[in-house]
Structure formats: structure tokens, C-alpha cells
Design a protein that fits this description.
Elements lengths: L7 H11 L7 E4 L9 H16 L3 E6 L9 H14 L6 E4 L4 H13 L3 E4 L3 H6 L18 H12 L9 E4 L14 E5 L13 E3 L1 H12 L3 E5 L6 H11 L6 E5 L3 E2 L6 H9 L14 H7 L3 H11 L7 E2 L1 H15 L1 E3 L1 E2 L2 E6 L8 E6 L9 E6 L2 E5 L19 E4 L4 E9 L5 E9 L16 E2 L2 E2 L4 E8 L17 H7 L6 E8 L11 E4 L3 E5 L6 E6 L10
Length: about 550
């Protein structure tokens, strides 16, 4: 990963360092292990990891596992795999929010003793009804003035499991008339009688994120807590927790805009629904915006980070065109991917003037832009396959590929001329008969002849069968994340799912692809960029087509 360019966060850090407010930059990435990471997560990783790296600081991975009902070790493992794949190694350490449950409990006791927290018996619905709105102050809970002794006793009973779920909460005593709704005596502890993936049944009392997060940051020595913009209104509560517990030095929270990308969604709840209902083939389905899905699709860590860099780091809401992401991976693979020949929709060609038992080899470059990539030998025989789209029995104007009585260059080989056709019972061309100019092998030119078209081909007797998966957009409209008012979110997403987002083909490939390794990238000449599937290298997933329609914004 290249060093990050300066942004508004780095301007804050530069000022903090200049003023001596901090000595060492320490950041963290705090995912909740309730699903798989996605392209939006990559932005948070890029900012936190890249910032720590730029300033010679530390970067932590901290699992926000404070909600046992939604968490699973499957997600814990997947998160670390994704970070490792991206190269964002948490050299500052790997931590769990649940590691701090004892400390969170101790600090809650301090808040109670200081008269800044109380046990409230209101139900969730009652709390909501008394919260007020932006125009109306909230109403104090009837339990707000309980004595310190009573609150301590009740909180102990909550911890000991003497109350059922939802019977009561511990609330911070702040200000029910605050213009910031998050400061109106928020709940900081709730009762959940569910076994925890790490703590087992030790706890039935769990801290809420807004309370636990600043404590975790402070205990780990985080200097700059960098998170997405939806937490901006939560920052006063973050500061309240830090100040009233008395942490020094105090961490500070800063927010950046979330990454929204056209033709996809970042809602883990909805992505989970797609997986659980079988609408996609798991979290790593190559159509998914998950990092494991993008990895299986063939995107590289460097192309993902380059996409995030070019999309920019700011506070303003925006939706980034997915074509920028596709442009970034094309740009990289154009210089690194080996060229190979695959015929996706084959039609047979017979060279009538070529010996039946002859095999010769033409050399084709592994990457024309990289002389050091070398060449490989591709067999040529009497019977070949070409793409059906490279032949037209009745050619349109300016069709420079194969056509009756027309000449075309067989890539790296001979000039061929179509002399006759065979048709099947449906009237479709089933075989094309050609002759070749045997003086034009190895792409040799012939004086006075201008051959405008070049097509790829494969020896029919040497070609191998493989599966190719062609993927399209997951949704059929670009701004799927911009949901109209008064519309059910899930129904809206479902109505715009692209039901034709994947096509499976049985294709012909050159022998060299028989040695493809999982996650090895290729350009199938004239067909696009492909990757050997991570689970089965005999399956090739199309990453992107060759055509790049992205145009940078002025």
C-alpha cells in the first residue's frame, strides 16, 4: 500500500503533533463480528491502517463483540482473513470488546457512585415515548432519582441474572432536554441472557457500543478514533464517557463519509438476507460487495485501496461510480495479467489446405507490454475453434473479421480466407472451411495486402474444456442506496435485484491454462480479465470486460 495522500484527518493529526497533544499516532478498526466485511469496510481499513502507517504509528484490530445475539466465530475468522489479504496487519495488536467487560462494569459502578448513571425500569417502548423529539424535550424517567445505594444494588442484581431480558437498563444521567437526542439519558447497559462466543455464560449484562467504544479506545491508547459519519452525532456521548470516567490522555473521535458505490448496497443485514435466502451463493459470491466476494471475483488488494484513494476522503455524502473500481483493476491487470486464449462461444474452422496430421507452434507474448514476461508456444492444427461472433455469414458494413471470401489474420499465425460453410438442422453455421496463405505464418506480412482484422483461435485437438462464470451488476439501477421516502427498504432492494447477474459457460481454452493456480489472473485476449477461482482453478470468473468506459470527473 502506497503512502496516503494528505486529507482533512491528516491536517488534524499534523496540528495535534505540532501542538504536542499526542506523541504517537494509534488507530484502530473495530468491526462487529456479525457479518463479512465489504467494500465500505475497506475504506475504514484504508484510513485507519494507512494513517498509522504514514505516521509510523500503531494499528489495532478490535472486534466489537458486545452484542452476543448476532455474533459468531465464523465472522471473527473471516474478518482477520480479509485484513490479512489486504495486507493491513494489526501490528498494534488484536483485541476484543469482550476483553474489557470487567473494566466497563467497574467504570459503570464509578458512574453510579458519582450520581451519573441510574437503573431504569422503563421498557424500550416507554423510554422511546418519553424521549421527545427535535422540537420537544424529553421527560425524566420516574426512576432517575433513585439513590446511589439502590442503583448499586439493582445493578448488582442485573449482573447476577436476577432480571429477565428487557426488565431494566442502566442509563447515563445527562440531559433529557439536550438538542442532541443521543445525550438524552442513553442506555449504556442492557440485559441479554445469551451465551457469548468468547465469554460463555459469564455475563448476562452487556454494555452498549456508545459506552463501550470510548472505554476500549482509551484503554488501548488510541489517539485518533476514526469512524464513519453516522457516528458524528454520537461524538458528544463519546466525549462524555471519556471525561466522566476521567481518562488521560483522552482519545478523540473524528468522522469521514461512508463509501457508497453504485449498483450495490452495504447493509450487512440485507447482505445476510441474500445469503440466507439463497439469492446468492454465500458471502463469497463474486457478485457480492463483500471483500471475500471481491477476492473471489478477482479484485486485488491494491486495486481496492487505489479505488478508495481515488474516491477521496471527505465528510460530504457521495456515491462513487463502480466503473472507477473497474477502471482501477483494469489498470493494474493490464500490466500484470498473463495473456491467454479462451474461446467462449466456439464454432469449428477447418483449414482445407493444411495437412491433417501436422502440428506446428506459434509463439504468442505472455504480456505485450512487458518484454520480460516472455512468450509461450500455442499449437496450430487443421481444425480450429474461433468465436462465433468473429464470423458473419452476412456481414454488416465495416465488419473486418471472418466472412465469406474475406481474409482475416489468425492471431500470431496465418492469413485465412473463408471458402465454404456447413449448416446444422436449424440453419446455423456449424463449420467454417478456410484456406490459409502458408507464406504468412507467425504473423508474417505479405507485400501489398492490407488485412484489417485479427481474431484469436485455438487448436481443436489441443483445446481444453473449462467453466467460465460471467458476472453482471447485483442490482439493475445505479443509485440503489438512495431509497425513496415511504418505501420498504427490503422490498425496494428485492425489486431491483438483477436476476440475470450470472451466466455459466462451458468454453475452450489453450493448454497453458491447464496449469492455472487459484487466484491467478489472466487476460483472455479480446474477452476480458479473468481469475482462476479460489476454490476450483478449473473455473474462471470474469473480473471485468476489456472495455473501460470510466471517465474521470473534472
Amino acid at each position: 500500500m502506497e503512502e496516503m495522500s494528505s486529507n482533512f484527518i491528516h491536517e488534524i493529526i499534523d496540528a495535534d503533533l505540532a501542538e504536542g497533544k499526542v506523541e504517537k499516532i494509534h488507530t484502530r478498526f473495530p468491526p462487529e463480528p456479525n457479518g463479512y466485511l465489504h467494500i465500505g469496510s475497506a475504506k475504514a481499513i484504508y484510513i485507519n491502517y494507512g494513517t498509522a502507517k504514514k505516521y509510523g504509528g500503531l494499528f489495532n484490530l478490535r472486534y466489537d463483540d458486545t452484542n452476543p445475539s448476532k455474533e459468531d466465530t465464523e465472522y471473527v475468522d473471516s474478518i482477520y482473513r480479509d485484513l490479512e489479504w489486504l495486507g493491513a496487519i494489526p501490528e498494534g495488536g488484536i483485541f476484543y470488546g469482550s476483553d474489557y467487560f470487567d473494566k466497563c462494569y467497574e467504570f459503570a459502578l464509578k458512574l453510579i457512585r458519582d450520581g451519573k448513571a441510574y437503573v431504569c425500569d422503563l421498557s424500550k417502548e416507554e423510554m422511546e415515548s418519553m424521549r421527545g423529539d427535535f422540537n420537544t424535550p424529553g421527560k425524566n424517567s420516574p426512576y432517575r432519582d433513585r439513590s446511589v445505594e439502590e442503583n448499586l444494588a439493582l445493578f448488582e442484581k442485573m449482573k447476577n441474572g436476577e432480571f429477565p431480558d428487557g426488565a431494566c437498563t442502566l442509563r447515563a444521567k445527562i440531559d433529557m432536554a439536550s438538542p442532541n437526542m443521543n445525550m438524552r439519558d442513553p442506555a449504556i447497559y442492557r440485559i441479554v441472557h445469551t451465551s457469548h462466543h468468547r465469554q460463555g455464560d459469564k455475563w448476562c449484562l452487556y454494555p452498549l457500543y456508545d459506552y463501550a467504544h470510548p472505554i476500549q479506545d482509551a484503554l488501548e491508547g488510541i489517539s485518533h478514533s476514526l469512524c464513519s459519519i453516522e457516528f458524528e452525532n454520537h461524538r458528544p456521548l463519546y466525549n462524555w464517557v471519556v471525561e466522566n470516567i476521567g481518562f488521560e490522555p483522552a482519545p478523540h473521535q473524528y468522522e469521514f463519509a461512508r463509501l457508497n458505490v453504485t449498483y450495490t448496497v452495504m447493509s450487512k443485514r440485507y447482505l445476510r438476507m441474500l445469503v440466507e435466502t439463497g439469492m446468492v451463493d454465500g458471502w463469497d459470491d463474486p457478485r457480492m460487495p463483500t471483500l471475500c466476494g471481491m477476492r473471489r471475483r478477482g479484485y486485488t488488494p491494491s486495486s481496492i485501496f487505489e479505488f478508495v484513494r481515488r474516491a477521496g476522503i471527505a465528510k460530504a455524502y457521495s456515491v462513487v461510480d463502480v466503473e472507477l473500481l473497474e477502471h482501477c483493476v483494469r489498470e493494474e491487470l493490464n500490466t500484470t495479467a498473463k495473456r491467454r486464449v479462451a474461446v467462449l462461444d466456439p464454432v469449428k474452422v477447418i483449414i482445407d489446405n493444411y495437412p491433417e496430421d501436422k502440428v506446428e507452434y506459434f509463439e504468442l507474448p505472455n504480456n505485450p507490454g512487458d518484454p520480460e514476461a516472455g512468450t509461450r508456444k500455442v499449437p496450430f492444427t487443421r481444425e480450429l475453434y474461433i468465436e462465433r461472433a468473429d464470423f458473419a455469414e452476412v456481414p454488416p458494413p465495416k465488419f473486418f473479421r471472418m466472412k465469406p471470401d474475406g481474409e482475416v489474420r489468425l492471431m500470431g499465425g496465418y492469413i485465412a480466407k473463408c471458402v465454404s460453410l456447413e449448416h446444422d438442422e436449424k440453419g446455423e453455421v456449424s463449420c467454417i472451411h478456410c484456406t490459409v496463405d502458408l507464406e504468412t505464418g507467425n504473423g508474417n506480412p505479405v507485400d501489398g495486402r492490407k488485412i484489417k482484422g485479427t481474431i484469436h483461435w485455438l487448436s481443436a485437438s489441443h483445446a481444453e474444456d473449462r467453466t467460465v462464470m460471467l458476472y453482471d451488476r447485483l442490482f439493475d439501477i445505479p443509485n440503489i442506496c438512495e431509497i425513496p421516502d415511504n418505501v420498504d427498504r427490503d422490498e425496494y432492494f428485492n425489486s431491483h435485484l438483477n436476476r440475470d447477474s450470472v451466466t455459466e459457460l462451458m468454453v475452450k481454452v489453450e493448454p497453458a491454462l491447464g496449469e492455472a493456480q487459484p487466484e491467478e489472473h489472466f487476460q483472455f485476449v479480446r474477452n476480458g480479465y479473468f481469475v482462476a477461482d479460489i476454490n476450483d482453478p478449473k473455473v474462471f470468473n470474469r473480473i471485468v470486460s476489456l472495455k473501460d468506459s470510466y471517465k474521470p470527473q473534472n
